[in-house]
Amino acid sequence: SFHGALATQTPVTQPGVVRAYLLVEHGEADSMVTPQQVDAFKKEMDAAKVNYQFVSIPGAKHGFTNPDADRLSHGDHGGPDIGYNEAADKRSWADMQAFFKQVFK
Hints:
This protein is of the alpha+beta class. It has helices at about 35-45, 70, 75, 85-105; strands at about 20-25, 50-55.
């Protein structure tokens, strides 16, 4: 997940249900996902013993990998509070490549 909502429609309640490895790249400055939602997501994954990596990127907003995010943000057109962050984009891409190398050995 890159700047995902983190809410689940069907919460995982038992270990072993989710067998995939998960990578979550989250912008720490994402106003569309509350700290409570982040905590709830982590608690759900931990309780279900899901193998996941959660990366919180300082200063990154929702949409940090989208070069058009600044143009679409609330500051210009009344849209959502999103923003492109080149450093976060590159870091999350590198994280994903490392994750794939680890998972697909």
